Amino acid sequence: MISAEENTKEGKLPKGITRCRDGRYQARYTSDGHRYSLYGRDVEELALRLEQAKKQAEEKKKAIVFYLQTAILPKPKNE
């Protein structure tokens, strides 16, 4: 990986995106304790893919929580 100082020489990169030595860019994010990496040659495209991946991970979390609340967890008794 190229250091943060070298990244800023060419212009500031978006948060979570670094430049690799081979010229590609790497975007990293964490979801539910798992680390994910995306690679690309275009910063703008990679930033868009990173946003989409984060949104998809958030939607997946919401779907799991909804499923747990409606299907698995016992419903309280009405007294």
Secondary-structure blueprint of this entry?
Elements: H1 4-9, E1 17-19, E2 25-31, E3 34-40, H2 43-72
Antiparallel strand pairs: 1-2, 2-3
Tally of separate helices: 2
Q: Mean pLDDT across all residues, rounded? A: 84
Main β-sheet, spatial strand arrangement = 1-2-3
Shape: rod-shaped
First-to-last CA distance: 62 Å
Q: What characterizes the major β-sheet?
A: 3 strands, antiparallel
Low-confidence stretches: 3-8
- Helix proportion of residues, in percent? 40-55%
H/E series, N to C?
HEEEH
Secondary structure tally: strands: 3
Strand content: 15-25%
Radius of gyration: 19 Å
Global structural class: alpha+beta
Task: Write up this protein.
The protein is an alpha+beta fold and 79 residues long. 46% of the residues lie in helices and 22% in strands. The chain is built from two helices and three strands; from the N terminus they run H-E-E-E-H. It has helices spanning 4-9, 43-72; strands at residues 17-19, 25-31, 34-40. A three-stranded antiparallel sheet has the order 1-2-3, covered by helices on one side. The chain is rod-shaped and about 60 Å long.
